[in-house]
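Please, why this fold?
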Amino acid sequence: MSRIIAVVGGTGPEGSGLALRWARAGQDVIIGSRDASRAEQAAKTISERAGRPVRGMANDAAVAAADVVVLAVPFTAQADTLKQLKPHFRAGAVLIDATVPLASTVGGRASRVLGVWQGSAAQQAAELAPKGVHVAAAFQNVGAELLSGEGDVECDVIVCSDDDAARRVASELAALIPGVRALDGGKLENARIVEQITALLITLNVRHKSHFAGLRITGLDVPRKKPEPSKHEA
């Protein structure tokens, strides 16, 4: 099923990597940015790599056009971005929060997580989202370098949500990325733990001089789904 996906923060490494993978999978992807010209330039680059059109728009226009909004901005911009975009969400849209409250966003170490009054960045997003918007947390532990590459992404994506519709959509989008397995991580409050794992993965990358540390959970009978080819690949 093809959806219209707006990646807010799509000019950054994580957002552009996700956009690339979903475009390759045949989804209708919109790059969102505060600067429409930057969004258009990033969309052009991703289109060339994906082999299919990707649009670029200002954040408000991107959100208004989308069924699914993926928030991939630095944590320090999360609250202000959602407040500005709140009037533009479609009724019944899905918001997937991928932000992580790393201390590096305020000049500290990337291996440390900031405390969030609501419990996690995802819970803060849910508090700020419009009523009727379905909220899930996902994609915090998938590295930008892996997403921007050509090979399979050997990483599990843990999806946390209090909303069945949001959990299903986030899991389906995760399964579109070759190599990724979507795992049901339970309630949205569990996103606090998932966000902390990102800081651990950064530490592992530094210690082992790598950029590709990912997360695999063993002992679960949850097969990886092979994405169906998009129409332009068939």
Notes: The first helix runs from residue 13 to 24. The chain is about 35% helix and 15% strand. The helical segments are 13-24, 36-50, 59-65, 75-85, 121-128, 144-147, 164-175, 191-207.
